[in-house]
Amino acid sequence: MLISTRLDTLGELLRSGKQYHVGVSHEKFLEAVIDAYRQEYDVYEEPHLVRDVDGYREIPYIREGMEVLKTWDWAFGQTPEFTYKIERRFTWGTMASELRSKHGIILSCSFNYTEDMDGALRGKLDALASKLKGQRYGSEGSEISMIAEGDERIADVWTWLRAEMDS
């Protein structure tokens, strides 16, 4: 099982890497990716920069390939099992969640909360976690949205989870 810790941007990844090695930069990262690609595929030509202005999107094969890459099945449906651990600070407290998914289906969801958390909120978080089980990763489930109605904190958590799954 792959346990993933997600970083929002390449810049965030590089900033994180600088904690371990001050020489990490965007350019060095690109060089490392190019070198690894060359070694893996035994290709040593100079990289070719493809810009949208070059008209590549008009080539049917490339345009169709780009459309396939945007589909749910490509993004999630073929994924191996993984666990996604996330945390966020809200105005009302900090929430941590663990989503376990395989082939784009949520196997489980759990929330970490403190014992002193409002019992009604804990119950709604447990209901949200239960409703997520078996759903497609990144789904908009109307049943799930209904749980969030009437409690701004649950709505905050649901909005956060959807944004995390969509990114």
From TrEMBL:
Domain Lipoate protein ligase C-terminal: 79-139
Enzyme class: ligase
Name of a matching Pfam family: Lip_prot_lig_C
GO cellular component, one term: mitochondrion
Gene Ontology annotations of biological process type: protein lipoylation
Keyword entries, A-Z: ATP-binding, Ligase, Nucleotide-binding
Catalyzed reactions: L-lysyl-[lipoyl-carrier protein] + (R)-lipoate + ATP = N(6)-[(R)-lipoyl]-L-lysyl-[lipoyl-carrier protein] + AMP + diphosphate + H(+)
Pathway: Protein modification; protein lipoylation via exogenous pathway; protein N(6)-(lipoyl)lysine from lipoate: step 1/2; Protein modification; protein lipoylation via exogenous pathway; protein N(6)-(lipoyl)lysine from lipoate: step 2/2
GO molecular function, one term: lipoate-protein ligase activity
Gene3D superfamilies per the UniProt record, alphabetical: Bira Bifunctional Protein, Domain 2, CO dehydrogenase flavoprotein, C-terminal domain
EC number: 6.3.1.20
Keyword Nucleotide-binding applies: yes
Keyword ATP-binding listed: yes
Name under which the protein is recorded: lipoate--protein ligase
